[in-house]
Design brief:
With 208 residues, the chain is mainly α. 47% of the residues lie in helices and 0% in strands.
Length: 208
Amino acid sequence: MDDRSNTIAGWVLAGGIVALGLSIVTGMYFHPEAPEKEGFAVVAEAAGEAGGAAAVPIATLLATADIAKGEAAFKKCAACHTIAQGGANGIGPNLWASMGKAHGHVAGFAYSDALKSIPGNWDWEGMDKWLANPKKYAPGTKMTFAGLGNPEERANLILYLNAQGSNLPLPTPPAAEVPAADAAADAATGEAGAAPATDAAAAPAAAK
């Protein structure tokens, strides 16, 4: 009985040794090596910079702006501003005839130094940038309004502001740019059309 137990124990021990040896050999043979370059480089494009649609000029948007929608948009401003002629200042200054005037033009209103330091007058592009992001247009401004993100809504509002005592002539929209491919096609068409005329002009000379 003891001999049989010893035999079984011997086989079990031998099997364990074989399994351990196979494990070591397998580990050496299939040892994974770290790659020279880990992972993949991911290049992220900033939104609005690469491949984004170009911003439409304010002059173009004003040409199709809706003054009634601009008056409705002004309700977002009415908590701080009046716009009637002779209206009182509120948290913000009265906005009557503000287009074309200097930054900080309303007498007696305590404008921030940040806004008063902006050179020039309230022109179309300046008002558009101000309404889009006051804190970016005049860093340090006291105005807490976050801005209007919709370009069409800004154009409507600016058109309404202009109609309240300013009445400046609207800016001329820039001419539409012709894509390079279309320009090349037009040039090729013009050259092709001119060729028969050249041949026809040469025919009488040849006849002489």
